[in-house]
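Thread: Newbie trying to understand structure tokens

Hi all, I'm a second-year student working on a class project, and my supervisor (Dr. K.) asked me to get a predicted structure for one chain before our next meeting. I've only ever worked with sequences, so writing a 3D structure as a token string is new to me. If someone could post the tokens and maybe explain what I'm looking at, I'd be very grateful. Here's the chain:
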Amino acid sequence: MDALDRQVLLALQADGRISNLALARSLGLSPSAMLGRVRRLERSGVIRGYRAVIDPAALDVTVRAFVLARLREHSEQSIRSFEEGIQEVPGVRACYHVTGQFDMVVELAVRDLDHLSQLIRVDIARIPGVMNLETMLIMAESVTDTGWPVVTQE
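---
Reply by user tm_fold:
Sure, no problem. This is what the structure looks like when written as tokens:
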């Protein structure tokens, strides 16, 4: 990946709906060269997809939380069981296998506190291997995800 690829990634993270023509013009390439470059980045898996950024309130999501899970054991099977189980829980935005006091951090987005309580007490607590859970409510988002950091100069 060269510096121009990195500039393409920055531009697409800022505006995934930018036309190929506008992207090509902004970076001084022909539209066909830009299209080839973007398609190469897509085929290689550098660009994994495109999506709309949606206001959670429009979907009646009023509660967001992190649920930290400690597993009974740290075996590959235990971790895999948790990862498979958490994929079945509605409202999961992300799940991370982490180091430290807890083994997994799960981000949830739900309609209200009753829904959150149900998901934690029933859906998450019953995943095989879960020893204990701790929940942190998200009060405010201080920094919004704007994409991955892309260094354009070496």
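A couple of things are worth pointing out once you decode it. The mean pLDDT is 95. The first helix runs from residue 3 to 14. Feel free to ask follow-ups in this thread.
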